[in-house]
Amino acid sequence: MDRTMREEAAEGHDRELAHRRDLELVARVLRGDGAALDRFIEQLRCAPRFLHVINDRAGRPLSETELADLTQDVLLLIWEKLSTFEGRATLETWTWRFCWLESRNRVRRVRRNLRTAPSASLDDVPAPEERRSGVEDAVEIGLAELGSPRSEVIRLKHFEGRTFPEIGEILEIPVNTAKTHYYRGLEWLRQRLRTLGEGTDR
Amino acid sequence: MTRHDPAHEERLRDLAVGDLADDAPAARELLASCAECRERWAELRALAARLDEAGEFERQVRAEAERSAGPAAEADRVAEILRAAAAGVRPATRGAGGVPRGGAATPMRRRAAIAAIFLIAAAGALFLLRAFTGHEAEPTDSIDPILGVGEVEAIAPRGLVPDFATFAWRGERPPQGWFVVRVFRAGAPPGERPLAESGEILETSWTPGTGVTQLWPREIEWEVRVFDAEGNSPDATDRIAAARSAP
Q: Nearest Cβ partner of B54 from A54, A139, A160?
């Protein structure tokens, strides 16, 4: 479907507004604003849904009890880290990252415990979805190590499909700086994935 | 080791950001004449494709989560957990079916207990110091020594800390220079591969991301190194030891 430049610009503008709106919301929550907390809770209701879908896609390695525990831990972690939210991603995207990384960590821990248990009967061969998520894991780990602002530029480009002028506006940096961050970040990630034992070839 | 031609580097950047099409004459000439550029461009393209795939996977899962309404009890649970967190109280952990599970100390309670033990130990050490020396412990010099360009001093994390959220240091990098942080397991011998290494950092702090730091052991050592525009490293901090107060 052809999209007009005006539609794309409007969408980009809306997404930028969402970043700013979320940043403002978090600032109000941190100031103890009760109404803001209600809206914040409403937005964070995506967390258990994310965790359920991630668990389903991985072949349900976590039980309902473990998933309930994980939900609580993720929400508390988000709460603890709330003051570090900079509005570089939307609140939902930020929550997604916590859900993804924490669920991968939890699954690894559960599998490790099962393997070391004397009566372990877990199949050591990872499920196809697990092998697939290993690929995303390496990328996520690399991006997390890369740190801001380069990882943000790469995420905005590839995960949110932003243009460099949009990235520049969101991160409040010149377009050329956004491009330089992108290139240096990509180059660093290329080398890092090699050392993580994950070549860029599939 | 020979350095890659800076002009080639500039062209690779233009290719990667889309300012130069790979079928443009300048790009074709570059890729035909430089084996390193050819190899790196192939890898960068593969990496970009892989990032697109990872982005697509994320979008799919998020869309699926968007479609699934989820049980109402879960929505209530989110509100319960966050309201309790906002009030500074950790809610009771519940298993499936909303049955409370008691017994084990929660991380928050463990953290508070460890912090209390640490404070008592610190107070005890201060008391003993005063008892043995007969005078107040000397206050540390509150005036930070002035660092020259290219000198660097690590600030945090240092000692017992709640987490390894942000690494901070002070120092001025040379023009066009950068900093690099390397994190090691505690007691790692020289030459051992770091647990993590930052990219080129222009600021004086680095936030590696929770998902990564949680994979690290409880005790780490880290260093920050400053590089000049040529990639030479005029200064580096000693390795700084830090430990998470929570297990």
A: A139
